[in-house]
Amino acid sequence: MLRSCIRTRSDSFAAIFMVYGAVKDLIIGILRDADRALKITEITEKVHLVNDAVPDSTIRSCLNLQTDNANGQISRVGRGLYSYRLNSSTTFKDEVVFDNIRLIHGESLEVMSNMPECCVHSIVTDPPYGLVEYSEKEKEKLRVGKGGVWRIPPSIGGCKRNPLPRFTTLREKDLENMSNFFEDFGSKALKVLAPGGNLLLASNPLVVHIVTNALVRSGFEARGQVIRLVQTMRGGDRPKGAEEEFYEVSVMPRSQWEPWIIMRKPMIGTSASSLRTYFTGGWRRISDDLPFGDVIKSSPTRPNERKLSNHPSLKPQALMRQLVRASLPLGRGTVLDPFAGGGSTLAAAKALGYSAIGIELDESYFNIAKDGIPKLADIKLSD
Q1: I need a labelling partner for 167 at 20 to 30 A (CA). Which of 22, 71, 276, 348 fits?
Q2: Are 234 and 165 in contact (CB under 8 A)?
Q3: Is residue 51 situated within a structural domain?
C-alpha cells in the first residue's frame, strides 16, 4: 500500500511539472504575440481559452519566476504587467531587413537554437537535400561551370536547362546522415514553431519517406503532402553507356510531380483554441467557397525570375505565394524559411504583406537573396 502511494505521489509530481512546462510555453507565446504588456487577468483569460482547468496559482507562479534563459525571459514591466523580452544574439554574420522581412546570414540550426520558443507561426522551406551536391567543394564547381556531381542536362530543342542535384548519387551513409540531419532540424524547428504551426517542406519522391520519419521522431505530426504537378528533368534517361543498345528503355520514369511534406507541431487544445491563442491550427482558405487543396498545378521557374535571383533551386512565385499564404490560417504571424536560398519564400511573404524570417548560410546566396527578394516580390502574377 505504501509503495502504491509513493508511486502515485511521484506520478503526480511528474504531471505537475509537465503541466507547468506547458503553461509556461503557452504564456510565453501569449506575451510574445501581444503588441503590449498584459495584465495578469488578461493572461489568465487567454490561458483559460486554451485550457480552463489550469489553476490561477500555476499561472501566477510562471509569471513570478520570470525565468531567464538563452532566448529571453518573462519580465514584469509594471505593477501586474508582464511582457516577454528577447535576449540579444550574435549567432549570425550579417542581416538585412525589408519592412517586415528579415534575412539572416548564418547557420540555420545555430540561429534557430538561439531564437525564442514559439516565435514563428509556420515554416516553409526547400532544404539542401543533396548532401554531396551542396558541399562547399561541389557548389564551387557549379559556380565556375564545371558542374561537379550536379547533373547538367544537355541543350534540347534550343532550351538550355539548369543544373539538377543527383539524388541517386546518395550512398547508404549519405542517407543516414540525411536522416540524422532532419531529426536535428526537426527538434530545432519544433522549438521555434508555435503549437499547431505548419511545417511545409519541399522534398523528392526518392527521399520523402526518410525525411518524414526523421521529423516524426523529432516530435512533429505527419499531416500528408502537397503535390506540386510540374514537369521535371528527373528520370527518363537511357542506361548510361548503353544508350544505343537499349534505346527504348528509361532507367527511371520521368518525374512529373514534387512532394511538399506537411508536418504540424502538436496543438495545445483544439483547433479553435489554437487559432485564438497562436493564430495556428489550420490552413487559410483560398476563398469562402474554396479550401486550400493539396494538389497544385505548377510550372518550372520562369527565366525572368531566375534573372532576378540566380539560385539553382529557386521556386516560382506563383507556387510560393500559394504555399506561404495558406500556411498562416488567419494571415497573421511570422513565416520562417531556415534555408532561404534565393529568397523565394521571403519574396512571397513580402508580396502577401506577411512577416517572415529567412536564414542562409552561403554568402553568395545570401547576397543573391538580398538583391532578389524585393524584385521577386514586385512581380505581378496573372490570375
Answers
A1: 348
A2: no
A3: yes
Q: How far is CA 328 from CA 120, 197, 346, in A?
A: 10, 8, 14
User: How do residues 360-369 score in pLDDT, each as one tens digit?
Assistant: 988 999 999 9
Q: Is the pLDDT of residue 152 over 60?
A: no
Tens of pLDDT, residues 3-18: 333 333 334 333 333 3
> DSSP string of 47-113?
HHHH-TTS-HHHHHHHHHH--B-SSEEEEEEETTEEEEEEPP---SSEEEEETTEEEEES-HHHHHH
Whether residue 28 is found in the same domain as residue 135: no
pTM value? 0.71
The residue segments making up the domain with residue 8 are: 2-86
User: Are 186 and 215 spatial neighbours (Cβ–Cβ below 8 Å)?
Assistant: yes
**Number of other CB atoms surrounding residue 143 within 10 Å:** 11
> Would residue 383 count as lying in a domain?
no
CA distance 254 to 242: 18
Per-residue model confidence as pLDDT tens digits over 33-71: 776 778 899 999 999 998 888 888 888 877 876 554 445
Grid cell digits, residue 146? 564545371
Instruction: Provide mean pLDDT across the span 349-359.
Output: 94
Same domain, yes or no: 318 and 181: yes
SS3 assignment, position 228 = strand
Q: How many domains does the chain have?
A: 2
User: At 97, phi and psi to the nearest 5?
Assistant: -125, 130
DSSP readout, 115-155? SPTT-EEEEEE-----TTTTSHHHHHHHHTT--TTSB-PPP
